[in-house]
Amino acid sequence: MTSTVSNNGFFDKFGGKYVAEIIRRPLDDLEAAFNKYIHDPEFLEELRIIQRDYIGRETPLYYAPTATELLGGAQIYIKLEGLANTGAHKINNAIGQCLLAKKMGKTRIIAETGAGQHGLATAAACAKLGLECVVYMGEVDVRRQQPNVATMEMYGAKVVPVTSGSRTLKDAVNEAMRDWATNFKNTHYVLGSALGPAPFPDIVRTFQSIIGEEVKRQAAERNIDIAAVVACVGGGSNSIGVFTPFINDANVRLIGAEAGGIGPNVGENAARMTGNASREGIVQGYKSRFLIDEDGQSMPTRSISAGLDYMGIGPQLAALGESGRVEFTAFLDKEALDAVKFFARNEGILFALESAHAGAAAMKIAKELPKDKALVINMSGRGDKDIFITSPVFRPEKWKEFLKAELKRLENNEDIHDAEIMNN
Amino acid sequence: MNLMSHLIAGFPDAETSIAIADALVKGGANILEIQLAFSDPSADGPAIQTASTIALDKGYSTKQGLEIVKKIHERHPETPIYIMTYGSLAFTPGIDNFVRMCKDSGVSACIIPDLPFDCDEGLTEACKKHGLENIPVAAPSMTKERLETMASKGFKYIYAALRAGTTGSETTIDQATLDFIDTVGKGGAKVLGGFGIRNGEQSKVLSKHVYAVVAGSVFVNIVLGNEDSAEGRKKAIAEIEAKARELVG
Known about the structure:
The complex is a heterodimer. Chain A has helices spanning about 25-35, 40-55, 65-70, 90-105, 115-130, 140-145, 145-155, 170-185, 200-210, 210-220, 235-245, 315-325, 335-345, 355-365, 385-395, 395-410; strands spanning about 10, 15, 60-65, 75-80, 110-115, 130-140, 160, 185-190, 225-230, 255-260, 280-285, 285-290, 325-330, 375-380. By secondary structure, chain A is of the alpha/beta class. In chain A, a hairpin with a 2-residue loop joins β11 (about 280-285) and β12. The N and C termini of chain A lie far apart (about 60 Å). Chain B is α/β, with parallel strands linked by helices. In chain B, β4 (about 110), α6 (about 125-130) and β5 (about 135) form a beta-alpha-beta unit. The longest helix of chain B is centred in the C-terminal third of the chain and has 19 residues, at about 230-250. Chains A and B meet through α1, α8 and β11 of A and α2, α4 and β6 of B.
């Protein structure tokens, strides 16, 4: 039996609480509160009702007939986490932690965000639960994920662009940690992935495990015989969430798809468990595998999907990868884009670019598996948010013309009905 | 009084950081805290992060940083040098190896805030082996129990990140802070205390309660914005010397 919870914050040699003492107290307080409320029937019931009525759980386990036929192997099932309110699995954790924070008497929530999905989910959870919300977001990400910034502001959150360091996700984490160290008396930091210092990997996994628990139940109800589960892995919250209930089921292969970016070299990808760009390290409060150089400095990462564009991987997944329980594989940006197109055209399902890495993995391995078995893809999020990234790829000229015309219209302060007619 | 003053190796460049060390010593600093720039300094404020990024953008490495340290040590052999950095830079090359490299560069202590005293990857042991001190960093938010455990571990020095109230022009150190300093020093450790000291009056008040006053970002802030021209750097160096003198009193 592999333990699915940490041993005092550690998963084999990975994990831990490698933080300065200024941030120790809020982590210890959080750990105590989490351990208390996660066994409190009242808390769990409140959470269950929010999951049902607000998030929209359970999410469907969809049988994909055309994809199954075209790929010519195992039956393809897609867990539609993208149908959760706010469009991705991130809300499972955001709601759980915000509810916990409220029980702890906190009135202010801070969060980091890369792609904006976690920020968005946290902003929504705060709006729902009546909490103040501040989201730290790298200035680069603010630019590439404007739709999510706009929505966060709609939910009433304050989005703070982070201009230090590389101005991406990791810098947003640093900034959130600083804020928390100063303001922890009234503030809770909702970390969005199954990483960072203990107890975050345990907390995030706990709130995300509902994905895997539902898959397991849905499969049992419908006599689906699961041979493999695939999920994309950035920090690893959706993957650890869907994998956890299967960790001790040796019949189920667990496959993590990392961001292969544009190639295998340093700075071209965000692959921590495959390739040779990563090494063991201690960064941002935990020990794991990171894209760091021989001195220990973080290295640039690259992926078309902002949600996978991060240098570290959750410690539990690093341990499961090293033990061989979870198999890792990496897919290029262009393979992810192909997967987006494949599932959109053939199943009417639009994968987020992150989740499309899992789709790409399924497309590759389906035929290795027997036809009477199931291959479950966790679609962690839907792709609406990626319109500014996919449109320039799939329809560059029309998109460019649209943007120009739209800008002109806004500058001239014209109503949409009076705008210039687009030709193509 | 003892003043532990801070600089970042390689910020704004190798040559100027050596000149900054000279100015600090000349101004009366008797301990140099030299930071090795790290890409993700989450326990530091924005000024030190920005300065670290500038050093790193110039292609700075640990090896180059320690070469600068070695030069500073050769120029000021009587002034103890404490290295401040993050766990990643110590763990990645191997803790023992890192401490040995520090030793070879003339360093006498390590301050690595994200390697906690009770889970330090062998840092304290490696320091002992190579004749260095490991200096843990205490914070006022620590539980009394944890702070007392730290204080009783036999560390020669403990760095206390203080919180102090400033009312108008008068710096006051409240009873909670004094109690904190007492607890930090309970096991016999000499307390290095700082809280974002800006002027001589603040350091004078604090110096009565600690072994050494720590001044950090005040010096980095003098350089920031002046680093791009030779004239700016020269001006900053002169200002740093004057500031150190003011803080020593």
